[in-house]
Amino acid sequence: MSDLSLRDIKYLQGVGPQRAAVLEKELNIRSFKDLLYYFPYKYVDRSRLYYIHEIDGNMPYIQLRGQILSFETFGEGRQRRLVGHFSDGTGVVDLVWFQGLKFVEGKYKAHEPYIVFGKPTVFNGRINIAHPDIDPADELVLSNMGLQPYYNTTEKMKRSNLNSHAVEKLMKNLFAALQREVIEETLSPQLIEQHRLMPLSDALHNIHFPQNPDLLRRAQYRLKFEELFYVQLNILRYTLERRNKFRGLVFGTVGEIFHTFYEQNLPFQLTGAQKRVIKEMRRDMKSGRQMNRLLQGDVGSGKTLVALMTMLIALDNGYQACMMAPTEILANQHYETITRFLAGMPVRVELLTGNVKGKKRETILRDLVTGEVQILIGTHAVIEDTVNFSSLGLVVIDEQHRFGVAQRAKLWKKNTCPPHVLVMTATPIPRTLAMTLYGDLDVSVIDELPPGRKPIQTIHQFDNRRALLYAFIRKQLQEGRQAYIVYPLIQESEKMDIKNLEDGYLHVCEAFPEYKVSKVHGKMKAAEKDAEMQRFVENETQILVATTVIEVGVNVPNASVMVIENAERFGLSQLHQLRGRVGRGADQSYCILVTGYKLTEDTRKRIQIMVDTNDGFEIAEADLKLRGPGDLEGTQQSGVAFDLKIADIARDGQLLQYVREIAEHLLEADPQGTRPENAVVWQQLKELRKKNVNWAVIS
Ligand code: ADP
Ligand code: MG
């Protein structure tokens, strides 16, 4: 179909240079092919008639058959409107026009049979249909009407008279123009036959103009199948290529450092999940392949310890290890935790952040090159070009969604043979999404919390019950605990944020005069912020008022209350992350979601899920369903989930799994892509890789 992508949309009947410019600007449609792949977002069944007495005001588009009894005009000048009183014998609706009045009056006659199509609204007890489509009843053969497509359009398009209806007309012109041309198939005959798929040209026709719901379903299935199949094939092929290209460092032994730590320093028993995950990584690291593992574990599941023990295996094999955190505070915290864990052991651990300067920095950099520094912990600073290792064997990346693909790639170059990579995240990525975004990462899951933790209690509170809320917080503070109070971040208005936070801060100071209150937000200088956080960590202050800057990783086991103001403004995974800041000690902890009284259906659902479950995976699945993959945290850096035209990661998870297996089989049978029967498939993959920049950089 290469010629269709070369045919300029400007030359399609009904387009021309002006509309072509609008189509390009608004929808990125430049060629016949681009338009062909602009799919409807919904369909309206036009084979069915309704009766007026059935209409209830909540209906989508409907179709009626009847007569216009009379016309009437109301208002003056620009306010003028024309009303046709229309009846089918079961009732009356008002057809209303605000534009083109003369044309309408000239065209449609009273007492002729018409079929009227539009969206009914009920106003003052009367049913209206504004600007309906009208056809003479005898000209319209309903059984041929099928489903009518609806296309998304923008304001600018509408100003060029390119509404959904107009796009539909262009689509008809397009199919008329294509009549003689063959739409080339993009899947192999085997795949089509084996999986009973509709051929591409039929599927494209039926996705725009389906005769009935069954044909529409088959067309959708074929197109989704193809879309997900190529996404998966691309990822799997890429992984295979990389595996063939890079060997992995072989960590053959688990030696003295690991064992000494395990026997003498480990302050508690590992959970079963921690043990299993460490085993999985041991297996990876001695396999001769580079490890690329994503470790998912809910907040508080003990990922840091797993990371440490994995690093010790690297050390036992004569390599260095490095751990990256997204913020200064977190890097500090990891450094402290890890040096505490390793107390008394002859392991040299250093911290490298932007704040480490001068002599200290020089010493660290020098001792990294000689190999004396065995574990380096830090922020982005560790991937700067000036940081060189003697033999870097393992890189741990904590809270990965703050790091871009490019940064990860940079790390790989720190050793001639790329180091093993462990990516850790507490933002659980649903399986289907992980398969699309990180198809080449192996996934380990810590699905068990250390024993003795009491599940956090989550409570929903309306904001007019503040006295009650403050009494509750006070009681916790009196027992020696600490509390977080979080305000939302409104990205469009930083000023408003700060004001929100400042007001809240003053309010809290007034309400709790007997306690000290800290305040932290993203606009503060890093050093100032860290100092203020540190005061809270050391219990110099009992309440921390903050924006979401505390979202990731901060560990203050003594804090037992997390209050989230305007909880309706937060997404589910963010609420879950924030909640994870408490419940880290042995005491009962609480998360209080404060909202206004009036809530949308979606918000009500979100809050309810939070109240009902502490399970991060359940929450991530629910989040994906409520918001769609484009919004999900951690997906911004990879455009793949957005690029999908028809498949939906949230809803088509099963199909994704199915086509992944098909892609795996195909690759197994034909790893070099040389079998003639698969030529179509490899050719198509090549085309897609050329066009989708995102496809080439997944890692
Ligand atoms: P996260 O997975 O959120 O990064 P951390 O690694 O910060 O969790 O661990 C949370 C807390 O649980 C830490 O105080 C850690 O020392 C403790 N912890 C980790 N593993 C265990 C275990 N097996 N038994 C008891 N406590 C543990
Ligand atoms: Mg952590």
From TrEMBL:
Residues 284-446 form the Helicase ATP-binding domain. InterPro entries: ATP-dep_DNA_helicase_RecG, DEAD/DEAH_box_helicase_dom, Helicase_ATP-bd, Helicase_C-like, NA-bd_OB-fold, P-loop_NTPase, RecG/Mfd, RecG_dom3_C. One of its GO terms (biological process) is DNA repair. Pfam families: DEAD, Helicase_C, RecG_dom3_C, RecG_wedge. GO terms for molecular function: 3'-5' DNA helicase activity; ATP binding; ATP hydrolysis activity; DNA binding. It is an enzyme of class 5 (isomerase). It catalyses: ATP + H2O = ADP + phosphate + H(+); Couples ATP hydrolysis with the unwinding of duplex DNA by translocating in the 3'-5' direction. Residues 468-630 form the Helicase C-terminal domain. Its EC number is 5.6.2.4. Keywords: ATP-binding, DNA damage, DNA recombination, DNA repair, DNA-binding, Helicase, Hydrolase, Isomerase, Nucleotide-binding. Belongs to the helicase family. RecG subfamily. Plays a critical role in recombination and DNA repair. Helps process Holliday junction intermediates to mature products by catalyzing branch migration. Has replication fork regression activity, unwinds stalled or blocked replication forks to make a HJ that can be resolved. Has a DNA unwinding activity characteristic of a DNA helicase with 3'-5' polarity. NCBIfam families: PRK10917.1-3 (NF008165), PRK10917.2-2 (NF008168), recG (TIGR00643). This is ATP-dependent DNA helicase RecG. It comes from Phocaeicola salanitronis (strain DSM 18170 / JCM 13657 / CCUG 60908 / BL78) (Bacteroides salanitronis).
